Amino acid sequence: NEKVPKVSYTLKKRDKEIHFSAETYFELYDPEGELVEKTYAKTLSYKGLKEGAYKLNYDNTSTSIKFK
Questions:
Q1: Given this model, what pLDDT does residue 3 score?
Q2: What pLDDT is recorded for position 59?
Q3: pLDDT tens-digit map of 4-42
Q4: DSSP H helical segments within 1-68, as ranges?
Q5: Which residues in 28-57 are b (16+ Cβ under 10 Å) and which e?
Q6: Cα separation, 12 vs 16, whole angstroms
Q7: DSSP characters over 12-51
Q8: Distance CA 25, CA 66 (A)
Q9: What distance in Å separates the CA atoms of residue 56 and residue 1, rounded to the nearest whole number?
């Protein structure tokens, strides 16, 4: 029974990107609850998105991220 490491992320504000520790499936929802993007990747760019609190679902985790 192999233990899969938990995926984490870091916010690269200068590049306006979210970097995951491993490739993962994710969904990003805007402040109104509309789906912005869903895909399987290691990086998510949020260039061009409006400011606000977004909901990020990835690797059985749900979190809120504020973009400025």
A1: 77
A2: 92
A3: 789 999 999 999 999 999 999 999 999 999 999 999 999
A4: none
A5: bbbeeeeeeeeeeeeebebeeeeeeebbbe
A6: 6
A7: ETTTTEEEEEEEEEEEEE-TTS-EEEEEEEEEEE-TTPPS
A8: 20
A9: 29
